[in-house]
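Thread: S-adenosylmethionine complex, take 2
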Amino acid sequence: MVATADPDFADLAQAEIMAVAPDSRLAMLVDGVWLVETAVSFFDLADQWQKEPPIFVRHINPVQASLSLRGQPSDIYALSDLLQAELIDLIDPDLPFSVQARVLGQQPYKAFDLNQTLAQTITAVTNAPLDVRQPVQILSVVVGAVRGPERGYLGLSLAAHNLSDWAGGRRRFARDEAQISRAEFKLLEAIETFGIRLPPRGVALDLGAAPGGWTRILRLHKQYVTAVDPARLHASLQADPDVRHLRLTAEAYLEASPDQFDLIVNDMRLDARDSARLMVAYARHLYRHGTALMTLKLPQANRQTVLDHSLNILRRAYTISAARQLFHNRSEITLYLQPKSYDKISEA
Ligand SMILES: C[S@@+](CC[C@H](N)C(=O)[O-])C[C@H]1O[C@@H](n2cnc3c(N)ncnc32)[C@H](O)[C@@H]1O
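Output below.
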């Protein structure tokens, strides 16, 4: 299979692969993308990770056929021939499909060209419907070299098996004119990835809100927002009557008898363990049906220890529903949390 992660978290991603497939031999295609050889079948591993997803491995796809390439435009047709010879019979004509190509390195064609030609081949032979946004089956194509000449690797799987619906887990969003910060993409990706449904006209608390990207996204989801941050919010939010900005630290707001909330989000630039302790203290201010979402900033050194410690702190008050290093996260991961019932909360 091919596995992908943020290069900064390569060590932790590799450890996750070794934990489920200890015989794995990893060969780097480019930074953060590995060809993984293991006796564990892709589908067994994908099933296991569907139940308990890894944090750092962002995307996987199987390799069922490969061939060496010549570095010429005709490689596209060679890959189309390989698809027809080896994989096309496995495609279900009734299910929407997509082709997700990645070209790692310089080639006389782009991923887009591969996507187009191979999708045309599949449609012509099987009549399966192409659906790039919500495919059920995905043909993954990776062009890259471990050592020596480039090879093309093809694999067919269900989107649900790949850990992300996007090629290599690269979920991109269109830039919005009104965007306040790049951090907005993190919240958009988390809402989509974790399937978060915000209550209609819910009441949200945004800890570490400035300059206000997350607050803006929450407003687009019709939430009333209390934005807590000593720093200024963007001018476009200052005039919004459904945004209350408290120029306080999260610690100071906690002392000021906060309200109850349907959702608490936290993107504070803070030591992961301190941030976790604050979230535990705030758990009492979430309604029972409420949820919380936070980024956990991980240091360069002792990341695994800091992560384990932070998760253990959070477990005093929350069930951790999901933890993922998302495409828009940098030196951090995103957690989706459900509060435990109040009587089960232990002191932080
Ligand atoms: C990465 S920025 C948040 C970006 C924001 N989510 C957005 O979309 O625009 C981190 C923010 O955390 C705030 N922060 C750091 N420590 C804090 C604390 N103890 N209480 C409240 N805010 C804090 C900083 O002032 C900074 O504005």
